[in-house]
Design brief:
heterodimer; A: alpha/beta; Rossmann fold; Alpha-Beta Plaits; 2 domains; 6-stranded mixed β-sheet; 4-stranded antiparallel β-sheet; 10 helices; 14 strands; B: mainly alpha; two-stranded antiparallel sheet
């Protein structure tokens, strides 16, 4: 059974803008799935429809086999949503926000209190339980949105850019929390602009662009299509002239930093051997661009070029 | 059977959560929600009841101060039940925390019932507070507790529903004050709070009969004092019909997602 099965989903907003143009998308139960796309691609509209915040124009949505039109209450009880923008009553204390959400899902107060404490502790918010929402930092609000979305223990958790504006430390702790949650069986769908996040967390991926699915594949399969990778090398000593390294394309960023483009036939070992032979020592190495980011841009650019060509 | 029972239990918990949230909201900011009505009506009792009222004498056989008590209590109920729902629901739209409810499995009728019950609660709290203030100035013997309570409840329900519909259509905070300022207040003042319509020329008496608030104020006055300018059966019927119409309309708006879903 699919956790999410969307068929021919379309959305035309008032004024005629078509945000979704017949989207078909399936997400397996237990998956950690990334839905990527540039701004305005239709990601949030798609999530809005699945979570009942946006009315679809046509198409069908099933969550764990339950049809959104025929069994909206059943569908809603399976989904937890972490929206992109803060949507709290800013004057309520943290604990009450989570308790109220549990109440909306029909969880009796004594049980809601136990669950709220559990998730607030897990997300390091328990000490802030009495703090009014407006006094929380952006990172804490993001974490609270996750606690709030989990209090009814949904089988499918949808996160719409959950780490936007969050510092790296909190982001990493959120990642590890989400990994754990997924390992325990919760299906997770994530949209993000941090492609490093998608690459680090997700197994499968869909790229949505201009209201259509441009790619739907596993992350491994997608990354294997990458023909070249560019690395940035920080050197121990500076080199004023670029050495000849058979087959590797080198470029100077400055005297002590080189950029090297490697194709699929090259190996890192081969690169280091060649550098050593030329007396060049490397202190550190990093990807110039996130691999997924590169593929993403290629796909989006290809699509844009195709559309321009067709126009 | 068990499934149905647990479903109803879930609805009850949701309803209870919304009502509790609403009551806590107006209780937390009681200086803004409860106190102003109490102060205003105290001034009415002092100025119109005591100072001017003593020169007016009696109206419909009652001292003027006693005569205006029902209208002032009901005025508090009307404005507060309306304001509670319109401001609370609009704020939840404005700050987008209405989404907490929209993504939950709470049926529309439970959401509506929860907000209306919150409005009724504030209306009754303010109505009771105004009544207590009135007791400082005069003695009140309730003619019919049942009629008093029913009219009070139904009026609070009706105006809570009105506030809900106003909030659904509102696009700014200005939009939530238009109806109370330009519709509710004039209709309440012209609804016989301070006078019996028998004092008006015949043509204005007929015009007054088109004001729905006249029926509510008079039915409530009947409950408290036992006098009314209109038959109370008509008042009950009218309020009930209005409630049913507004409930149906509110549910239709919620089902279509007007003002809350794109």
């Amino acid at each position: 059974m699919f956790a999410l099965d969307a068929q021919q989903l379309t959305k035309v907003y008032k004024g005629g803008f078509q945000a979704l143009k017949g989207v078909d998308l399936q997400v397996e139960e237990g998956d950690f799935f990334a839905l990527l796309g540039p701004n305005g691609a239709g990601k949030s509209t798609f999530i809005g429809i699945v979570s009942s915040l946006v009315r679809k124009t046509s198409g069908r949505v099933e969550i764990f086999g339950r049809d959104l039109d025929r069994d909206p209450e059943g569908v809603k009880s399976c989904i937890g949503l972490v929206p992109q923008e803060f949507n709290f009553n800013l004057f309520l204390p943290v604990f009450e926000v989570v308790l109220n959400q549990a109440g909306y899902y029909g969880i009796p107060r004594p049980e809601a209190k136990v669950r709220a404490e559990h998730y607030l502790r897990q997300l390091d918010l328990w000490d802030r339980r009495g703090t009014e929402m407006r006094k929380l930092s952006g990172g804490l609000k993001r974490r609270l949105m996750i606690a709030r979305a989990l209090v009814h223990e949904p089988r499918l958790l949808i996160l719409d850019e959950p780490t936007a504006g969050v510092d790296i430390e909190i982001r990493r702790s959120m990642w590890s929390f989400l990994r754990e949650l997924n390992a325990k069986g919760t299906t997770i769908i994530l949209t993000t602009h941090y492609l490093e996040e998608a690459e680090s967390l997700c197994r499968n991926i869909a790229i949505i662009n201009q209201g259509e699915i441009a790619e739907r594949t596993s992350l491994t399969a997608l990354l294997s299509t990458l023909n070249t990778e560019t690395f940035v090398l920080n050197l121990k000593g500076c080199v004023s002239e670029l050495p000849e390294l058979g087959g590797f394309v080198l470029q100077h960023l400055d005297d002590c930093t080189l950029e090297v483009e490697m194709n699929r036939d090259h190996t890192i070992n081969g690169l280091f051997d060649a550098l050593s032979r030329n007396g060049i020592e490397v202190i550190s190495l990093r990807n110039k661009q996130n691999r997924l980011e590169r593929l993403f841009l290629e796909l989006v650019d290809r699509r844009a070029a195709g559309l321009e060509g067709g126009a | 059977m068990t499934g149905r029972l647990s479903e109803w239990r879930r609805y009850w918990v949701t309803f209870e959560t919304i009502v509790t949230k609403e009551i806590l909201r107006f209780a937390r900011i009681w200086v803004q929600t409860i106190l102003p009505s109490v102060i205003t009506t105290t001034l009415y009792f002092v100025i119109f009841g005591r100072l001017i009222g003593e020169r007016i004498g009696t109206m419909d056989g009652f001292p003027y101060l006693d005569f205006i008590v029902p209208g002032l209590v009901l005025m508090g109920v009307i404005t507060n039940s309306y304001s509670n729902v319109v401001s609370s629901f609009y704020s939840s739209k404005f700050s987008r925390y209405i989404e907490e409810l929209l993504i939950s499995p709470a049926p529309n009728w439970v959401i509506l019932a929860g907000y209306v019950a919150g409005g009724v609660a504030r209306g009754l709290v303010v109505g009771t507070a105004v009544m207590l203030v009135a007791l400082l100035f005069t003695e009140i013997h309730i003619h019919s507790p049942l009629v008093t309570l029913l009219i009070c409840l139904m009026t609070a329900m009706l105006f809570s529903l009105g506030g809900f519909i106003n909030a659904i259509y509102a696009n700014s905070f200005d939009d939530i004050s238009i109806v109370p300022t330009f519709v509710l207040t004039p209709l309440t003042y012209l609804g016989g709070v301070f006078y019996s319509i028998s004092l008006l020329p015949e043509v204005w008496q007929r015009v007054s009969l088109a004001n729905p608030l006249l029926y509510m104020v008079n039915a409530f006055r009947y409950g408290l004092l036992g006098v009314s300018d209109i038959p109370i059966g008509i008042a009950f019927g009218m309020i009930l019909i209005f409630i049913l119409i507004l409930v149906a309309f509110s549910l239709l708006l919620l089902r279509r997602g007007v003002g809350i879903k794109t």
